[in-house]
From TrEMBL:
This is Uncharacterized protein. The lineage of its organism: Eukaryota, Viridiplantae, Streptophyta, Embryophyta, Tracheophyta. Residues 91-101 have a biased composition (Polar residues). Residues 1-46, 82-101 are annotated as: Disordered. It comes from Acorus gramineus (Dwarf sweet flag). It comes from the Eukaryota.
């Protein structure tokens, strides 16, 4: 069975009664709104957003390149070590064979 989790939210969110007796008459002059809002320039916001978005992408791209280079270097070093081990093993086997022959 499903639980009614939103029961309390829905029951208390009915329309609240509003007081109409405290209305301000329209005939009286009302104070002028003196708040100054800073006008926003949408083109500047777009430029800032593009710059912020571009830098992490470039960094992550550089990090991926660096990691790929490090991985390639480590793989080549491992293969060189493997080749050297095989050469030394072959030389040991040949020297052991020459001792017994």
């Amino acid at each position: 069975m499903a639980k009614k989790r939103n029961k309390n939210k829905n029951s208390g969110s009915g329309s609240a009664p509003m007081e109409l007796s405290a209305e301000i008459p329209k005939d009286l002059p009302q104070p002028m709104d003196t708040t100054e809002g800073k006008p926003s320039n949408p083109s500047l916001n777009v430029i800032k957003r593009k710059m912020k978005g571009g830098i992490p992408v470039k960094r992550s791209k550089n990090l991926r390149k660096q990691k790929a280079m490090e991985k390639a270097i480590s793989i080549s070093e491992k293969s060189e070590e493997k080749i050297l081990r095989n050469k030394s093993r072959v030389s040991r086997i040949q020297s052991a064979k020459s001792l017994y022959d």
